[in-house]
Design brief:
Length: 213
């Protein structure tokens, strides 16, 4: 039996392969390998290390190390990938950006796309929407892993009613946006809160007398 060859590899117009649109796996082995190489190059240029690129594309570490050195001129940095969400729960601004990553992932998660392509699309759109991104590609990949493994799920905010992601066993009732907004405004009358003295915790709003969140 003759081996199949992808017509896209020999097309002078460089038309995309019909079997690998949107990151879908092509039945032709060489075309599928070329797609993984292309995704790895894109990931490395966005800041991915060899370990992350290998997890997403499945390529050998030896190949990715050579590719990383050719693209950046230096070896890939060593170190472990994130494995705990403690750093996310300590900062409301981080959680606000996690919320944005979660919404983008829900919109762009298509079954036909590879995990690498989904991460690339989500991260590029995230950096375009934010002036000062607080999450790099490695942390964005870790956040998507929290969603995919079910460690984080959807919660509902008691103030605005919007859905937001949080750990499964979390007792959070307010979304990060409401927590940041009502840090400076009363959640009942929406009036600005007066500065508090150092060491003294603000108990009630001076305008309506409502107990603060």
């Amino acid at each position: 039996m003759k081996r199949r060859h992808c017509a896209a590899l020999f097309n002078l117009n460089l038309m995309p392969c019909p079997g690998s649109r949107c990151g879908d796996a092509c039945p032709v082995e060489r075309c599928n390998y070329a797609r993984k190489i292309q995704e790895s190059i894109h990931l490395i240029r966005l800041g991915a290390r060899v370990g992350l690129a290998g997890q997403l594309t499945g390529l050998e570490k030896k190949t990715l190390k050579r590719l990383y050195r050719e693209l950046t001129g230096r070896p890939s940095p060593s170190g472990q990938l994130p494995y705990s969400d403690t750093w996310l729960l300590e900062n409301d601004r981080y959680q606000f950006h996690v919320n944005l990553i979660w919404y983008l992932h829900r919109r762009m998660n298509r079954p036909a796309c590879s995990p690498a392509r989904i991460l690339i699309d989500v991260f590029e759109l995230y950096t375009q929407m934010t002036r000062e991104p607080r999450l790099d590609l490695t942390r964005a990949a870790f956040i998507l892993r929290l969603f995919n493994t079910g460690l984080w799920n959807e919660h509902r905010c008691c103030l605005c009613g919007a859905a937001f992601p949080a750990p499964v066993d979390s007792n959070q009732t307010f979304c990060p946006g409401c927590r940041l907004y009502h840090r400076y405004r009363c959640h009942h009358c929406n009036m600005p809160l007066s500065p508090k003295s150092r060491g003294v915790r603000r108990k009630r709003c001076r305008h309506c007398g409502t107990a603060l969140v």
